[in-house]
Design a protein that fits this description.
The chain is α/β, with parallel strands linked by helices. Helix 1 crosses helix 2. The longest helix has 16 residues. It has one domain: Rossmann fold (3-Layer(aba) Sandwich), CATH 3.40.50. About 30% of the residues lie in helices and about 25% in strands.
Length: about 150
């Protein structure tokens, strides 16, 4: 069953996504990101300039494309889960539950403090719980304790 995590109170969706993807890649895992094309294009650009020390290998897949199995990219950006190919971690940057999410072992939902974003996240939370998933909540506004 897919492990689903909500990362609440992200200060900025774009920069938090870059940091999260860098962490996933450093773990040796392949990440897929789903969302709407305009935001994915911004994320694509941000990943090129995010860190001078850490290049995050990535590719933006068109609506009907799919990366080949031998693609060495650590991060694949697409509008649907079906277009991602095989990934270890799925990051949802869209407003709805992504179709096909159950094929991935781990799903991360990034939620900012924006009222509309939080309302959409509540709907997704409810949908996941109705499907029988136990959800993990990470509040990014709370300090980390040792």
């Amino acid at each position: 069953m897919t492990r689903i995590e909500f990362h609440f109170n992200a200060p900025d969706r774009l920069s938090y996504s870059c940091r999260l993807l860098r962490k996933v890649c450093a773990s040796g895992l392949r990440a897929g990101v789903v969302g709407v094309q305009p935001f994915l294009s911004h994320l694509d650009q941000a990943l090129w300039t995010f860190s001078a020390a850490d290049f995050i290998s990535h590719m933006l897949v068109g609506a009907h494309g799919q990366p080949s199995a031998d693609t060495a990219c650590a991060v694949v950006l697409a509008e649907s889960v079906a277009a991602l190919g095989a990934v270890d971690v799925l990051v949802n940057l869209g407003d709805a539950v992504p179709a096909g999410f159950e094929k991935v072992s781990r799903l991360i939902e990034i939620v900012t403090a924006d009222d509309l974003d939080r309302a959409n996240a509540r709907v997704r939370w409810k949908q996941y719980t109705q499907l029988g998933y136990d959800l993990i909540r990470h509040d990014l506004a709370k300090p980390v304790t040792a």
